[in-house]
Amino acid sequence: MSVVKIRLARGGSKKRPHYKIVVANSTAPRDGSFIEKVGYYNPLLPKDHEERFVLKLDRVQEWLKVGAQPTDKVAKFIQTKGGQLPEKIQVKMDKKLAQIKAKVSTPKKEAATATAE
């Protein structure tokens, strides 16, 4: 049995990407067939631009209720738009955030102790 994922499908030309946020079978190719388009993401726009990413949050929530699994990037988009992630996915995201914070803070502490000596 294959899993349904909410993920990015790349479009655009060379060096000018834009992405569709799609619900697709996990075994389908990245840019191949999909079940439903639930938004888009244009990384070339400024970070504060309101059309940088658009998400149909109601449709995403429906797919999450049915058991679709978002990729890490899409999960961040859902959180940014104020959507609710399932508990299992939320715990995974919190663990990753804690690991990143630990990696960032560890070199600073080591450098501080090395200069103090």
Keywords:
globular; ribosomal protein; S16 Ribosomal Protein, Chain: A; five-stranded mixed sheet; ribonucleoprotein; Ribosomal_bS16_dom_sf; alpha+beta; 3 helices
- Percentage of residues in DSSP E strands: 25-35%
CATH-assigned homologous superfamily: Ribosomal protein S16
**H/I helix tally:** 3
Q: Helix amount, in percent?
A: 40-55%
User: Radius of gyration over alpha carbons?
Assistant: 18 Å
Distance between the termini: 58 Å
The helix-and-strand class reads alpha+beta
What series of H and E elements makes up the topology?
A: EEEEHEHH
Family: Belongs to the bacterial ribosomal protein bS16 family.
GO molecular function: structural constituent of ribosome
Keywords: Ribonucleoprotein, Ribosomal protein
InterPro entries: Ribosomal_bS16 (IPR000307), Ribosomal_bS16_dom_sf (IPR023803)
